[in-house]
Design brief:
four-stranded antiparallel β-sheet, 4 helices, globular, mainly beta, 230 residues, eight-stranded mixed β-sheet, 12 strands
Amino acid sequence: MCGRFSLPDEAAVAHILKIDRWNWHWPEPRFNVAPTTRVPMVFRADDALLELNGARWGLIPHWWKKEAPPSLTFNARSEEAAEKPTWRHSLRRLRCLMPARGWYEWNEKELVRSDSGRQVKQPYYICAPNAEAIAFAGLWAIWTGQDGTQVLSCALLSKAAAPGIVHIHDRMPVVLKPEHFDAWLDPNTPGPDVQEIIADSRNEFDSYPVSTRVNNTRNDFPELLVPLKA
């Protein structure tokens, strides 16, 4: 579920998020962001300023003891996050926004041929109508390795898919409404209010099939967002 997304440009992010401190140079345009790569995330720093930084997409909890990071921690099911050890501390105190333009999902009921002739699932691109940038509800953590190296990491929350896109996949990212950004980022927001924000997240999206070239993480160009011709 949501293992790839595209980044908006810097101006679009600045329009929806009044960031006080840019601690990471905005990356070149990216159209096929994959887990374990470094992605932009926005959080409320200790001095109350809204900060943008780069984080590993794949959360490493602060208590992790192994040198190798955990696998498959780029998505957290919102229904379970409050109870699961990997997520619960971050959901309680370390919430962030992960800016995106849209994301990809694969329809397992719709099989097509890739350029190499293999039978694969049809990929779709999903985005919010009339929005150049959206924000996934995210969690973050800082992990310190045995050598003292610190790693900033993040994960996005998922929920049941909205009615208009459930035919593609039964899960989707939690895409927050702008009016909920401040409360989401406030570490003092009570748990029940956090759950209400998730429940009231965006549910209206556009979707269309795209090229199977998105399946290869080495492909990262604007043509991946072009709708397939009927």
